[in-house]
Amino acid sequence: MKHVQDKVIVITGASSGIGEASARLLAEHGAKVVLGARRTDKLEQIAADIRHHGGQATYMAVDVADLDAVKKLMSFAQQTFGRVDVIFNNAGIMPLSPMSELKVEEWNRMIDINIRGVLNGIAAGLPIMQAQGKGHFINTASIGAHVVVPTAAVYCATKYAVWAISEGLRQESKDIRVTTLCPGVVETELGHDITDEATKGQLKEWRKASLTPDAIAQAVLYAVSQPDSVDVNELIVRPTVSAF
Ligand code: NAD
Question: Is 225 close to ligand 1, i.e. is its CB under 6 Å away?
Answer without folding.
Answer: no
